[in-house]
Amino acid sequence: EAQVTQNPRYLITVTGKKLTVTCSQNMNHEYMSWYRQDPGLGLRQIYYSMNVEVTDKGDVPEGYKVSRKEKRNFPLILESPSPNQTSLYFCASSLKTQLQGPLNTEAFFGQGTRLTVV
Amino acid sequence: GEDVEQSLFLSVREGDSSVINCTYTDSSSTYLYWYKQEPGAGLQLLTYIFSNMDMKQDQRLTVLLNKKDKHLSLRIADTQTGDSAIYFCAGQRSNQAGTALIFGKGTTLSVSS
């Protein structure tokens, strides 16, 4: 079954304790990205990756890191989490990466990770 | 940069039509998308429209695009309680650095029976 898998689904942690949210896709997609969803702010892109070893900042990258060492995985790393990073996080992947053509005709989103930083 | 705006709430009765509106700022967006998010779930792509189209219809869904006014709408005919969800409009921003979707804040559709 084609899917994007995020882990964990729920996480409560303390300020400053490093954490990683994993994201894995089984569709051989080139394009992967991370979003955070906050009430009244909608979805905002944190980081994205066009391919292995190619990552770039989205709109709200501060306080986050990512890596793309292999095609299927795109972990989101919070080196020193703070309460303002409490949010719902989504990982997404897509087949198409070229500038022309619809980006997400085959877009898949993970189920989300609800993170609380106290 | 791209900015996407949409109304936050819409309430309709079962069987009525729902119209969710969206405005965007970047006229170079070649594709515009509608996503649906059900409670506790991720986002599901409903439909997309190419910027040189005025209308796209897919079963109960009709997308209208007014490129001059930079206005996009999603019409759901015969709205059902299962259509209750958050609907996101998104524009595609592409440049040499990469491609990204820019989402609106989402419109919560509430359908009462």
Characterization of this structure:
- The complex is a heterodimer of chains A (118) and B (113).
- Chain A is mainly beta.
- Chain A contains no helices and eleven strands.
- Helices cover 0% and strands 48% of the residues of chain A.
- In chain A, the strands form two sheets. In chain A, strands 2, 4, 5, 6, 9, 10 and 11 form a seven-stranded mixed sheet that branches.
- Chain A is globular.
- Chain A starts with a strand and ends with a strand.
- With 113 residues, chain B is mainly beta.
- The mean pLDDT of chain B is 88.
- Classes of the chains: A mainly beta (118), B mainly beta (113).
Q: Kindly state the mean pLDDT of chain A as a whole number?
A: 88
Largest sheet of chain B, if any?
A: 6 strands, mixed
Number of helices of chain B: 0
Radius of gyration of chain A: 14 Å
What helical percentage do the residues of chain A reach?
Answer: under 10%
The H-and-E topology of chain A, N to C, reads as EEEEEEEEEEE
Mean pLDDT of chain B comes to 88
Low-pLDDT stretches of chain B:
none
Beginning-to-end CA distance, first to last residue of chain B = 41 Å
Structural class of chain B: mainly beta
* Biggest interface pair, counts: A-B, 29 and 27 residues
- Poorly predicted regions of chain A: none
Distance between the termini of chain A: 36 Å
Portion in beta strands of chain A = over 45%
Indicate the proportion of strand residues of chain B. Answer: over 45%
| Helical content band of chain B | under 10%
Give the tally of β-strands of chain B.
Answer: 11
- Class by helix and strand content of chain A? mainly beta
Q: Tell me about the biggest sheet of chain A?
A: 7 strands, mixed
